Amino acid sequence: MKKILLLLLLFSATILNGYSIDPTDPGTIYSEKDVPPYDIHDVLTTLSGEKVTTVAQWEKLRRPEILETLSTEMYGFTPASIAKVKIKIIEVNKKAINGKATRKQVELTFIKNKKKLKVQVLVYSPNKKNKPAPTFTILNFCGNQSIEADSAIVISETLKKEFDKTVLRTRKPRTVRGGDANIYPIEEIIDNGLGFATAWYGDFDPDYYDGFKNGIHGLYHKKGQKHGSNDWGSLGAWAWGLSRILDYLETDKDFDATKVAVVGHSRNAKAAIWAAAQDRRFAMCIPNNSGCGGTALMKRIYGETASSLNRRFPHWMCENFKKYINNEDSLTIDSYDLIGLIAPRPLYIGSAEGDQWADPHGEFLGMLYAQPVYQLYGIKKFPYDTMTPLGFKVIESQIGYHYRTGYHALTHFDWEAYIEFAKYHFFKPTESMIYNNH
Ligand code: GCU
Question: What does CATH list as the number for 64-82+123-437?
């Protein structure tokens, strides 16, 4: 009996806080022939069956409907009121990255309901050319100090206290200074005339189930207030954080805030696409290996499903999303609706062969079924109907794409593509190209 209790305890602890980098949930489908049949709806037809045929109708009817449905059923609603923020520049180093960049460390203090939350933002802008610079914005997994091995980089107080509680605690060695430097090719980004802005995602909201007491949720909750069934989850909070970094970039003359590409890997890719869907100031969106809850189809049962995501990461989405555990068929929205919200802005989807958990084929299909929205804006159809050959990059297109070899990671191959894509759109805009035209 004791043994069973212990096992049960261990099991529930794994569900609430557990995490394995290469998950193998029993019963996961990894073969196309085992995928059960599933429905695809038309992204341009409203829930009441009305067909949308013009941009005006899309903007007035269908787009707000998708946003509302995704908020109610999946990510939860982002609070409309913004917390008060104080900006403190902690460091300006004009000789960063071998003298090529200006590095700034910025402390954002959010204040609401008499509570405070501090977030450390780290930004780099090129010293030569392109000032103000178009910029990548990305949430990092292991803290700003993991980006560059320099003792001047401030380590987040929350990270020092809380990292062991995050579902990523197995990545502890990467919290050392420069531990993730190989993931972020800042010098190359700077050499290409682009900027880079980042913050640790856990500074905005913790990555463990805490009843939404800490992070930005803690600030928004009034004393005794219960977390509602469609209140934002952690992904919503991280997406909110990306918009707050953009608010800062708007105040800094070294950056061109009208040309900010929001990038993200994995869970932070899910946050990036949700951020760009809600905040149209982001001029470009680049979700890398975003999987379920990102660009992969949800009704297609392959790799990670809405069921496994809900069970393993109960804090990521809103409570309503739990209705879809073993019930994906009843979803009225799918990833292509989310992707449609990025239109007409440039979008680049990066998938990997060794990342079957994220369902790369489902990520591709999500993009394909979102096409009608881009076409409504007069943008040419993505030139391929099936996944492109491994290692082939589609850059000169409003929707960029690649399917590469290798595992679930943000690799140098990915960055090369994202840099090219950003340069193509931000530095050589042609008349037929549209971004952020609202
Ligand atoms: C897990 C999770 C994925 C997520 C990934 C990550 O594998 O199931 O949904 O994308 O972690 O963030 O690395």
Answer: 3.40.50.1820
